[in-house]
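Input chain follows. Return structure tokens only.
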Amino acid sequence: GVSFFDLRVRQLVGEKIGMCGTSGTKFPAIREHMKKIPFVNMPLNFESYPSDDVPRDAKAYEKALADFKRGDVCTVFTPDDTHYEIALAALKAGLHTMVTKPIVKTLKEHQHLVEVAREQGVLLQIEVHKRFDPIYNDAAARMKHLGEFNHFTSYMSQPKFQLETFRSWAGLSTDISYYLNSHHVDYHVMCMQGIAVPTSVTAVASHGIAEKILGRPCEDTITLTATWRNLKSGTTGTATYTASWVAGESDVHTQQRFFCLMEGGEVTADQCHRGYTVGEDGKRFASCNPLYIRNVPDSKGRYCGRQGYAYRSFEVFMEAARAVNAGESPAGYDSDLPTGHSTQQVTAILEAGRRS
């Protein structure tokens, strides 16, 4: 919300911002909470769907889409198993559409969304902000000059108490691999463009902790193992992507790191430990990462989070959508943005892991 309110201040989006959920009765509390946002000169008004007196309407997004016009933008941040239906409706309405990772859970649905976006002449993009982290972005550029691919490994986790927040869908509408491995799978696919392609995927999972918390079967940690074929020589590379939502509490909310071995060198990045720690009375010791998001105002109370890669992910989408409205081709963004077309290998890897 804060990102879009600031994008409105900058006139990168129009005056009208809509927020859509399934329970309208939650919006009064949301508006009250937003009054705590500390930034000056940032109007917080938005239109909500469904109306405040509606307990539940799972199709409220249809009314929201009808209130906007072709060339507007839609972002979808909902449970994974609802992405396809909502994104399809947005694309058919002629809206540029950004969907949080994973865009969908099957390659068939992914390819259909890509085709509809092409027919409508609109931009389809995934929200995968790791691409815009200056360190991860720099690492990707360096890998392009290190020859053929050999091995990649990544790990990402969230603390087990987060499962209480995810109780309504964790292990039901999605799994931890779709939810978190999608980040590093996308990053690796981006890094390997023009270098290597995935050829096979298998997965293993551990269980026993999440089911104690949720009272139902749910995998704790999932590791995908993929083989890749180097395009130049035909030789094989390997990759493992591990995600978990049963980690213990630590100095960061989510662990996230990778290592990549290339023919001419290696690259390692730890996205949550940037050499910046804060200790405050009454709070746990924390490793902070303002490169991701900054919600502390400057000395005059102004928002100053525009350089964060979480913000940048939305900003580049808005800039591209405006350019497409001005006549540019959406296909022109396939080489540098996580468009629907350029991320099909991501969904293929995630689905193959689930199937295995």
